[in-house]
UniProtKB/TrEMBL annotation:
Protein name as annotated: Helix-turn-helix domain of resolvase
Residue ranges the record marks as coiled coil: none
The organism's place on the tree of life at top rank: Bacteria
Cited Pfam families: RloB (PF13707)
Length: 157
């Protein structure tokens, strides 16, 4: 009976690896139009808020500074990765394209390209909302915020 409380048994229990307590964070890719200023802003934000460098990756667009080029590059980087920069394909849960709203002729095209849901997904979303499925669950499933969900619903009326 004394074996359960023996020093050897207690020591073995203490040596076992404990489960992690921290929640994992989404990996975020931020692609900017500028190669100097914008990446420095985001690096500073990451440092101030003590975000793990493995969670946030900031890159400038290798395709050029036009908004459509930034969006195309973030899409390419997400889908194909970049072996030279050690970025694996589809390694991020969130991807952002950051560009100015200057007089770029491709600004509207870039926004349309970056739209969260395509027309078939929007139709499916509306159909399921009409079927009284919970909006918060739908937003989570489609990977959008509830505010974005309501924007899509308002746009359809």
């Amino acid at each position: 009976m004394a074996r359960d409380n023996s020093p050897k048994a207690r020591q073995q229990k203490d040596l076992q690896r404990k489960q992690g307590q921290r929640a994992s964070h989404d990996r975020i890719l931020i692609v900017t139009e500028g190669s100097k200023t914008e990446p420095l802003y985001f690096q500073e934000i990451r440092a101030v808020y003590r975000l793990n460098t493995a969670s946030v990756e900031v890159r400038h667009s290798a395709h050029g500074p036009a908004p459509i080029q930034v969006v195309e590059y973030d899409h390419e980087l997400f889908l194909q990765g970049n072996r030279h920069n050690r970025i694996q394909p589809k390694a991020f849960e969130q991807v952002y394209a950051v560009f100015d709203r200057d007089e770029h002729p491709s600004y509207a095209a870039a926004l349309q390209e970056k739209k969260a849901l395509d027309d078939t997904q929007i139709a499916e979303l509306r159909r399921r909302v009409d079927a009284h499925e919970p909006k918060s669950a739908l937003a989570r499933e489609f990977g959008i915020s509830r505010a974005t969900l309501y924007e899509y619903l308002r746009a359809g009326n």
